[in-house]
Amino acid sequence: MKTSYCALALVLTASVASFGCKKDPPPPPPADPKAQTGKPGVVASCDMIAAVGSCNEWAKLAMGLEKGLCTGLKGTFVEGATAGCPTKGEIGSCALAGGEVRHYYGVALGPQGYTAPDAEKDCVSPEIGGKFTAVAP
To answer: What is the CA radius of gyration of the chain?
Structure first.
């Protein structure tokens, strides 16, 4: 009887092993470059135009901190191929350390908007320390 239990255990083990092993699913097809709606080189963005008059873009992320900061400020966080800030209503941008770019939007888009001098002042402030570039009207 002992050998029949061992044989049964061996058959069950082999059966479980064969059911437990499955092939990995095939990789998804490559993304259609024409379908990309974001900006090249941007891996994530945070649209806070309605709340604070700006939108940030990142070329790389730092452990997911950006998403938490964005949602904390009532922004819309987008990561991946569709990431990027809109150009409509933009009055200037601020290049920050680490590949981050903050885009500023005018007062025509809402009460939180900036004037060009205010946007530049915010960008070059000691707290932000960026390089401001105005958008031609």
So the answer is: 26
Angle ∠(15,19,21) on CA atoms, nearest 5: 120
- Selection from 31, 72, 32 nearest residue 51 by Cα: 72
The DSSP 8-state label assigned to residue 75 in this structure reads: -
Evaluate whether 46 touches 61 at the Cβ level (below 8 Å): no
Which amino acid does the sequence have at 116? A
Q: Find the DSSP H helices in the chain.
A: 2-20, 49-52, 65-72, 116-124
d(CA 47, CA 103): 9
Q: Minimal CA–CA distance to 132: which of 117, 118, 116, 120?
A: 120
> Across the chain, what does the average pLDDT equal?
77
Q: Which tokens is 88 given?
A: 């409509």
Per-residue pLDDT reduced to its tens digit, 128-137 = 999 999 998 7
